[in-house]
Amino acid sequence: MQNEPGIPNKLAEKFQATVAVVIVHYGKLQNTLKCVESLLKNLYHSIEIIVISNEPQTLLQLPKDPRIHLNVLEYNRGFSAANNVGVRIAHQLKASYIFFLNNDASIEPDCIQILIKYMETHPEFSAATPKVMIADDLNRPLPYSCGGINAWYRLYPKENLNKAEPVPIHFISGCAFFIRTEVLKSVGVWDEDYFLYWEDTDLSWRLIKAGFKPVSIPNALATHHPAQSTGYLSKTYVYFMTRNNLLFIKKHTTQSLNKLCYLIEFFIRRCVCSLWKLLVAGKINVLPMIFFGIIDFFYGITGPGRLTKTLNATAVPDKH
Predict the structure, then answer these.
(1) Does residue 207 lie within any of the structural domains?
(2) How many CB atoms lie within 10 A of CB 191?
(3) Which string of b and e fits 172-190 if b means at least 16 CB within 10 Å?
(4) What angle do CA 162, 19, 57 make, to 5 degrees?
(5) Which of 6-10, 69-73, 114-118, 239-243 has the lowest mean pLDDT?
(6) pTM for this entry
(7) Which domain, by its residues, includes 265?
(8) Fewer CB within 10 Å, N side or C side of the chain?
């Protein structure tokens, strides 16, 4: 049972670890405001809310609260780089945990409290995710909120979605990624080559390869509006999902046979299936983005790539 906001909570008082929540603003202003409001209603006492705006042209008026820290970037640096700016601020605030939360997501009042309790009492786990529900259908969890990665591609075991107890996983979505600060320092921050999409798979995979254990905690709840910032099957979505899928294969597959398997799967699932989805949706004008994503990968183009001007971005991301 949830405690009412403002009522002293013995569980919250027991744990003192500071949680820095990093939100990257891009797209709909009302989404970011709703996300921040859900954090202000949370029951855990020691949080800092870091909002990184990738839209310098947008006036972002947030609630007046000493826990809110706003940083407006001079241009759109992408999801990965903006998150890394948030990481540096979290270090300055001496946060023990960092909770990366999409601006089109929101949390239940006891979400962070439950995550902290579990992580503080289970030191064997390095990172966690709440159970993420689809905002338009609160009875249906997002498939990748209990995800894994197998030798071929992202794998979302359906049986995990209905489990009531925490379950070890191999993939955490960037929409709600809760991690120990020291662990993030160990494996490295978000890879800015991706700009957006597949960067969460990359970070999850680096955690696994380094021997760390992520976990899904189903009684901690969040909601999410998928692809609100870019739009599902938009030019931006298709371009980055295509190029970055190949980039992930290049970065994390060393054996020739595994790389061949990945590439076969890529052309079947990413190319053929995406072509079919775009044709069914009547988005003929988006079809070239599959081709452009493949071409730019082979030319070694990373960051915002050919969408630099469209996204008001920079062609050369910072390296960390």
Answers:
(1) yes
(2) 23
(3) bbbbbbbbbbebbeebebb
(4) 95
(5) 6-10
(6) 0.88
(7) 235-307
(8) N
